[in-house]
Amino acid sequence: MTDVIGLEGGTVCVEAGTTIERLVADYLKAEAVEHAMVSYEKASELRAAYLANRCDAFAA
After folding, report:
1. How far is CA 13 from the centre of its chain?
2. Long-range Cβ contacts of 17-20 (<8 Å, 24+ apart)
3. What's the number of domains the chain is made of?
4. Which helix (H) or strand (E) holds 40?
5. Which of 2, 20, 26, 37 is the most exposed place for a label (fewest CB within 10 A)?
6. How does pLDDT run across 7-41, given as a tens digit for each residue?
7. Which helix (H) or strand (E) holds 27?
8. CB atoms within 10 A of CB 18
């Protein structure tokens, strides 16, 4: 993936309740990128989800 458009229709995993979660949601909305966002309570869960290919990208 070389740009945010590569996330179109993809899944982004984030840590729940963080500023990053809000920033990513706001940015993807502003760029009109359709996506699913999945939140995890712990950073370790987030990394595990990404490594298990449950996310196309993650932000932490």
Report:
1. 4
2. 20/59, 20/60
3. 1
4. strand 35-40
5. 2
6. 999 999 999 999 999 999 999 999 999 999 999 99
7. helix 19-30
8. 15
